[in-house]
Amino acid sequence: MIRIVAATCLGVVLAQGADSVAAARERFRASLKYQTGDVTLKGGIATLRGVGQTYRFLDGEQAGKVLRAWGNPVKENPLGMLVPAGMTPVDSGAWAIIITYQDDGYVSDSGASTINYDSLLAQLQTSAREENPERKKQGYPTFEVVGWALPPRYDAQTKKLYWAEELSFDGDTLHTLNYKIRVLGRRGVLVLNAVSAMNQLPLVQEATPAALAMVEFNPGNRYADFVKGKDHMAAYGIGALIIGGIAAKAGFFKLLIPLLLAAKKLLLVGIAAVAAFFRRLFSGKKKNPAASS
Q1: What are the domain boundaries of the chain?
Q2: Which end of the chain is more exposed for a tag (fewer CB within 10 A), N or C?
Q3: Does domain 34-254 have CATH number 3.30.1330.40?
Q4: Smallest Cα–Cα separation from 2: which of 274, 282, 285, 283?
Q5: C-alpha–C-alpha distance, residues 285 and 18, integer Å
């Protein structure tokens, strides 16, 4: 913690700390390169149509940089990130949608209507607790799954599954919302995770339909393109998209440390935390990060 020797030192420390944080945030903002228009995701599996009015797109490398700055143990860069227009990832109240893809095969949606989602929540909470020792070992905050912020729902016509989890990260006074969307395809699942503060759930719910509307599997990769007997089938079903199967790969994302966005709270955070934040902002990919991308 910062120790103040005399009252006159307090203003100097706060001013220097505030300037440092503000300068770091501005450098980070300036380093981000957004894309608009029709954006084809890496590998050509899907396209985002009409990016620019509601969201701006960051490619995989840029998105990985943001996630690490937020304090996430990212093993591999995602396909990209959608940032709501009019904000940046380091603004107060910022949120974003992280896009990844799991090529585990065609996921059958048979039996989707009979899944016990309360049982899945208990498994999800257990999985999070089991992951915490490794997160702590790697220097990342531990967390708990508080519960459903929005119970899972599956749309059999659009082949889209969505739900939201309320997460509590150690050291954060605000809970984090992970709003998750899974779009089923011929050879795998397109994974969209919207990450925000818990109190932003209404805003995220209102904004996510626009993201869903712009995401399209390209011809040959759509769910309806599956060829039985030829294409590989995933070893799990709809329920495992929430816990098990790709859950270990999809992970749980957290937000930027809220305290570091307010210069007036630098004294509570301390020099070590601020230094660690700056390292995350501008460092490259870590070696052997925790397996929770």
Answers
A1: 1-31+262-285, 34-254
A2: N
A3: no
A4: 274
A5: 27
